[in-house]
Design goal:
rod-shaped, alpha+beta
């Protein structure tokens, strides 16, 4: 069976159409690959991606520094507060639980304890510095109780 010239031309035209479709499909795929910040070549696309990666790494470094700073500041902030109310005159039957001791502590147990003693004729307010959950000044039992209850739980 011999092929005549017209059949050969139709086969070749069909083959050319398939090849043009295939080339167009590859061109579309290549354009999708190179799409982005005005990239003309694959090298431009890779260069743009590397620049964006460096920007992300710089931003990450900045965020890590910021979080370290925030963490240090947070450790020094007041994280534990507790108030103990009491009656300093309960033995002689006067007064009520109007007196109090309030402790304000940071994560390391540093801060202050403020105490108020209430009596009918006056109110006295005292303040004592706290370092590592204790003070250089003598603490009352109520102040010690406020400090022990105000200790913040450490989070690892």
């Amino acid at each position: 069976m011999a092929l005549d010239a017209n059949t050969v031309i139709f086969i070749l035209l069909g083959l050319i159409a398939v090849l043009i479709g295939w080339i167009t499909w590859f061109e579309i795929r290549m354009n999708r690959l190179l799409r982005g910040k005005d990239a003309k070549t694959l090298e431009d696309s890779i260069t743009n991606l590397l620049a964006e990666l460096k920007e992300l790494q710089s931003a990450r470094t900045d965020i890590e520094k910021y979080l370290t700073n925030v963490e240090q500041r947070l450790r020094r902030s007041i994280q534990g507060v507790n108030t103990v109310r009491f009656n300093p005159f309960k033995d002689n039957g006067t007064g009520s639980n109007q007196s109090f001791a309030t402790a304000f502590l940071d994560e390391e147990g540093n801060g202050v304890v403020v105490s108020s003693l209430y009596s009918r004729d006056r109110v006295s307010v005292y303040s004592k510095p706290i370092r590592k959950n204790s003070s250089e000044y003598e603490l009352t039992e109520e102040e010690k109780g406020a400090i022990s209850k105000a200790r913040p739980e450490r989070v690892a």
